[in-house]
Structure formats: C-alpha cells, structure tokens
Amino acid sequence: MANQGARGAIPAGWYLDPQEPGGTVQRYHDGVAWTEHTAPVAAPGGQGSDSPSRGNDKAGTSPLVEGISAAALSELAKERVDAVHIPPMPTHKKSLFGGKRELEEENAELRRLLEMIGVAERDALAAELEILKAQLSEGRGLLAELESQIVETNDLVLLQEAGIYDYSHPLDSSIEYKDHLDDLKAQVKKLARDGNAVTGAQTWLVNGSAAEGQRMMRETSKLMLRAYMAEADNCVRGVKPANREATVERLSKARDMITKLGKTMQIEIGTQLHALRINEIRLTADFLAKKEVEKELERERKAQMREEEKVRREIEAEQARLIKEYKQYEEARKQLEQNGDAQGVAELDAKLNEINEGLNGLAERAANTRAGHVYVISNIGAFGDRMVKIGLTRRLVPMDRIKELSDASVPFHYDVHALFFSDDAVQLETDLHHRFAKLRVNFVNQRREFFYVTPAEVRDALIDLHGHVLEFTEVAEASEFRQSQVERVKNRSEDTPLN
User: Fold this and answer.
1) Terminus of the chain with fewer CB atoms < 10 Å: N or C?
2) Spans of all domains in the chain
C-alpha cells in the first residue's frame, strides 16, 4: 500500500517503520505481517542507490532493497495470500497530497493479485477434484469386478442358508442318477473329440502365415480347455448338496475369467460344454443327496428288522413258556382226574383255558403286525419340558424298548407318560404324528418322532382320537435330572468363597 512521507514517495508495500520514530526507515509489509526487510527512506526527488524508487527497475524488476526483487516480494505475498488484509496505518502523519491516490492504487493491485491467485487455485483444485473423481470411479469399477469374482465357499454359511434339499433331477434311485451321470460324461467327451468344446476366430495370422496362426489357435484353445476342464472336475469332486449352487457359480465365474484370457483371439469355452458341466454338477449333488436318503432308509430298515426280530423271539419264547406250562397243567389234571378230585380238575381246566387264550393271543399278535403299544415319553434333562417323543413298539414288554432308548446317547432316562395298547397301533401313531405335524422338531427326517408339545396336549389328542385313556402321567418324575440339579446348586454354593 503506497504512502507518502515527508522525505518523498514510498513504493507499494513499503511503509514508514513504526518502530523507528525518526521516519528515516521504511519496512516491507507482505499483506499479513511486517517482514524483516527494511530500507532507508529516499530523499524527495533523490535517486540514490539505497532508494526503493521504481525508477531503477531493470528487466522488469525493481530493486527495493539490496538483494530483494519485486518477484521475490510477490512470492512472499502469495505465501500469505489466504489471510491478506490491509495493514495498520503507520503512526506518523501522511502527506496531504497523493496519499489517497496511492492507497487506491495499492488496493487495486492487491485485489488484482488476489483474484489472479484465487482463480489459479480454484482451477488447480477443480483439476485435482476431477482426477480424484476419475480415480474413485476406477476404484469402484475394480471393486465391482473383484466382488463379481467372489464365490461363497464357507461350509457353515452355506449350511445355514440351505433349506430342504430340492432335486434338480428328481429320479427314483441313486442307480438312475449314476446312469445319467455316465451319459453326461460321454457327451462331454464327444464334444471334446469333435472340436466343439471351444470356439475361436476363423482366421488368425502369425508373422503373416495363416498356418502358423491356426496352430497357435489350436494350442491356445487346448490350453484354455485344459484349464476349464480341470476347474470343472474340481467342482464336480467338491460339490455337496449344501453347496450345489455355489459350486455352479464358481464354475461360471471360472469360465468368464478363462474367456477373458482368450478375448484377443476370440477364443471362448463353448456354451454347450458349459451347460453339460453345470448339469453334471447338479446331477452329482442330487446323486449324493439320494445316496444319503437311501443310506438313512437302509439304517431305518435294518433297525426295524432288528426290532421285528426281537418281537419274533419274544413271541416264540412266550409261546414256548406257555406250551410248557400247558403240558405241566395237563399232566397235573390227569392225576387229579384219576384221584377223583373234581374241584382240582375244574381249577386246572380254568388254568388251561387261560393258557390257551394266551397262546391264541400270541398267535394273533404274531399275525397282526399293526398291533402294539403307542408310547409317549419325555426327557426333561436332555430336551426340556416342551418336547416329547411319540413312538410305537410291538414288544411284549414295551418297557424294554423304553430302556433301550434310555441308553448312553442321552444324559438321563426317559420318563413314560403313556403306554397305550391298540390293535391298530400303526394308525394311532400316524394320526398323532399328523395332529402335531406343524410342531415337529425335525421336518426333514420324518422318522425322528420328536415334537414341541407338552404331555397334556398329547393326552387330549389321545382322548380325541381313541375316546379314552386308562392311564396317563402328566408330570414327569425326572428323578435323575432333579437330583442332579440339587447337586449342581450345592456344588456351586460350596465353590463360592466366604466373605
């Protein structure tokens, strides 16, 4: 900001130094603060070497002081441009002539510099912003591409997302699946033999030679086909019913990545081959699921056969016992009859009739495979108080079956709420299962006969279905579980330290 003193004109940016009261020294102000640059005040009209007058400018610079140029001072002003303000007025009195004009000129010069620097900075920031936007867009594109290549393979996540298995190819047996798989593999081999597994550019020149180009096409196609087939084989070997669709997605993305490698030569894995391999993955998953179902059915069938064998042996053993007892009573009756003991004969006749009824009942029981006991049992310690098992046994002594279920596979013995004999126990069990179908614990394996119901709810259903229930225990005794709870609380209190 130019000003005028008693000794003559002072250039823009230079002011009488407020720290020198004599008015003989001028100091440069950069628009924010006073700098360390000083110079003596020139005499009026003087052209001394120490004068900061603009009359000594050479090649566009004005040597305001020794070693300080106008360009350097301009740079100093730019460093402080963000906080430019009009410096405080010096304490000495200004000249009455020319001071206002010079002040206006300096204001105009500062505004011009500010506008020029502001425009440059704004343009630089705008350019930098465009670069950042381009980098962000590029980064987003790369992220989207990487995310498209991700395939979820975590078994736990896939198992959590898996619902009831839905067959892509519903066939009756694993043997049929095996036959279809063999047929698929034969089709894949035929495609490879016929050269239809991979497609590519019709003409390709190498060093101007079409023959060299064709050879390069064949070699590259064979390499890409090997890579794809290796990935497909790995997918087939690693597929499971739970990760079937994830495996299909994995192979599809592998095909896309392999195709990118041959994009220049327009080589890609054939659509028909890819469809066959995907079909093979799904068919393999169906085959494994069907095999597991068949294994479970086989286990159940063998368990049922073992149970039926136990029933048969029990019936035969009971028949043998009754026949032996019948013969003993028959011999005793003959003796009493020879001795003329009519009353004893009558008693033994009643006993023999009872044995005959038992033998007839056993014969009917052996012939009627639907007769048996429907049982309702619970295990509070293992499953809580809102879960029961509703099953059927044809054992002559049904508690033997309950004791078998209470083996080492559960922490406590089962409690029996009901043992209900029926000539058509199979139908009664089926009706109860249908009644509580929506409350099943296991919806996949229908042979797991556990339900989220209380014993009282089963009792009401039995009365509704059969009309009456002779004996039913609503509250489980659960003696082992309750005693264990007491011991657990006791041990916990003993472990608590005394204050």
Assistant:
1) C
2) 3-119, 160-294, 302-367, 372-493
